[in-house]
Structures are given as C-alpha cells and as structure tokens.
C-alpha cells in the first residue's frame, strides 16, 4: 500500500502553534525518547521516534557534511507518521522540509517569550535553509524591522528574501551582536561565533546549529551571563555543547514546556539564551498538523 505524501505546507506561525499546543496539552519533553545517532561513512544517521495517544512517528535523517559541495542538502531524510492507537502508517513526509519548518518554529516559540516586547533588530548567523526558515518564523511572531546577516560569503539572495518580508537587510560581522535585540545562530560552526560580552542585557539569543557535546556556537561568557533555556535538560546534558562546555548551572536551566506554560522565570536584567538540539516530539507535532490539514483538504 502506498502512503499519501502531503506537502509540508504549514505556515511558520501554524507550526509554532502546533508545537505550543502539544506542550500546553501536557507533554513532558524530559520523558521523551532519545535520539539514536549512528556514525556512517557519509556522516551520521539519525533515528528519532516519538508518540502520543493520537499519533506516533519516526524520522530517519542523514547528516552528510560533504553534500553541499555536491549541490545536495546537508540534511536528508523521511518522516513516517502512524496512527497512535493501531500504529498503522498514515503518511510519509519529506524529512528535510519538516526539519526546515519545525526547527525555526521551536526557536520562534521560545524567542517570542524571551525577547523584549519591542525587539526589532535580528542578527542572524548562517545562510543555509535554516537561516531562511528562521527569518520567516521570527518575522511571523515578532515585530522585526531590521536584520543583519553574518555569513562567510556574500548572501544577496538571503538579503533579498529578508527584504521581501519587509525588513531592512544588510550583511555584517560578528560585532553586530552589540546592537542586536535578537541573535540566532544556525550554522555548522564548532567554535563560538562571537564575543558573548558584547550582547546587550535586553537581548535574547538562540543557537540551533549543533547537537554535539564537542561543538558550540556561543561562548562561555554568554552562557555564564544569561538565563538559560533548552528543550529538555536531560537531552541537553547529552547533546548541547553550548551549555555543557559553557558550564551552565543546570539547576537554573528551564525547559521549553516550563517557558510555554509560564512557570519559568524570564529576567530582564541579563540576556536570555535558548539552546535547541531538535527533538522527535517536535517533528511529530508538526507532522500531525500537516497530516490533519491535508486530510481536511486545507
């Protein structure tokens, strides 16, 4: 039996709402299944299962660092959505498109709560698919007016995309974080991208580019200065090099569910730092929303 393959066509706001709804419904990220990572000759193979009463699903993703040099995406994969009660397969989704949508949605959900109300200037590190996704997602939930892109090469296409969202766009250097209200890092960097001492106390920062204990996009200075948040402390201890290498005080790190439900404090006298490694329940939330919209003919 062939499975339907619905296009991943949720808006960034709808994807964030799907993730928020799961958390408000009582899902505890701390108890969700762990990601399985298997080294393979081309890079890494990831298997990410998740389940609720209504749905189950698994993403099989490949991380192939050499692919961009071949004109191929660095992240590949597929997502299999199943009925929660019977485990009968319901749909097969493009895993890369799902990841490109859900990761910015998670960031947008977190930063919408961590950013200052009038946050208008985003400094964005990276120029790949996640950079585009994060621009669209943050523009959908925050009153952005300006973006500064920090990348290793000229990025006229990304600047044009930002302009199409109504943003004043320019390319700059790492020191641009000194004037930022929001900073988002979505790169493959293994070393800190900027000096954390430059970040203003009112700013909110997110790092999404790594799920490795040996890599990080922000430095120890930022982690030590900031109120820290992550999707789940248990997973972050295994995968969030930014927090582990930065010496995070785990007793004070809040998770995303606590942030969404309002039980986590959000101070305004120091930066707020959200570290995302990507979790399977997020893929399931978005995949289920895509399936339901397709089934309803939306």
UniProtKB/TrEMBL annotation:
Superkingdom of origin: Bacteria
InterPro entries the UniProt entry points to: NAD(P)-bd_dom_sf (IPR036291), ODC_Mu_crystall (IPR003462), ODC_N (IPR023401)
A Gene Ontology term for the protein's cellular component: cytoplasm
Protein name, UniProt field: Ornithine cyclodeaminase
């Amino acid at each position: 039996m062939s499975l339907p393959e619905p296009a991943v066509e949720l808006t960034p706001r709808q994807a964030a709402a799907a993730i928020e709804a799961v958390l408000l419904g009582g899902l505890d990220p701390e108890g969700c299944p762990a990601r399985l990572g298997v080294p393979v000759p081309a890079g890494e193979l990831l298997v990410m299962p998740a389940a609720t009463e209504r749905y189950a699903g698994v993403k099989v993703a490949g991380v192939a660092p050499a692919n961009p040099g071949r004109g191929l995406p660095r992240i590949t994969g597929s997502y299999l959505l199943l009925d929660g009660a019977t485990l009968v397969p319901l749909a097969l989704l493009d895993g890369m498109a799902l990841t490109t949508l859900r990761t910015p949605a998670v960031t947008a959900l977190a930063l919408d709560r961590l950013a200052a109300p009038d946050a208008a200037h985003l400094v964005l590190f990276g120029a790949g698919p996640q950079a585009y996704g994060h621009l669209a997602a943050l523009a959908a939930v925050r009153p952005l007016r300006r973006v500064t892109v920090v990348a290793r090469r000229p990025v006229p296409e990304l600047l044009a995309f930002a302009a199409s969202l109504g943003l004043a766009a320019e390319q700059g250097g790492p020191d641009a974080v000194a004037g930022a209200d929001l900073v988002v890092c979505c790169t493959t960097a293994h070393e800190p991208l900027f000096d954390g001492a430059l970040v203003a106390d009112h700013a909110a920062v997110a790092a999404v580019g790594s799920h490795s204990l040996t890599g990080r996009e922000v430095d120890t200075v930022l982690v030590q200065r900031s109120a820290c948040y992550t999707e789940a402390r248990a997973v972050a201890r295994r995968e969030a090099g930014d927090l582990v290498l930065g010496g995070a005080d785990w007793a004070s790190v809040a998770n995303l569910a606590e942030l969404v439900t309002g039980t986590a404090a959000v101070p305004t006298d120091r930066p707020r730092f959200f570290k995302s490694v990507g979790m399977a329940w997020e893929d399931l939330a978005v995949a289920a929303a895509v399936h339901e919209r397709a089934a309803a003919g939306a």
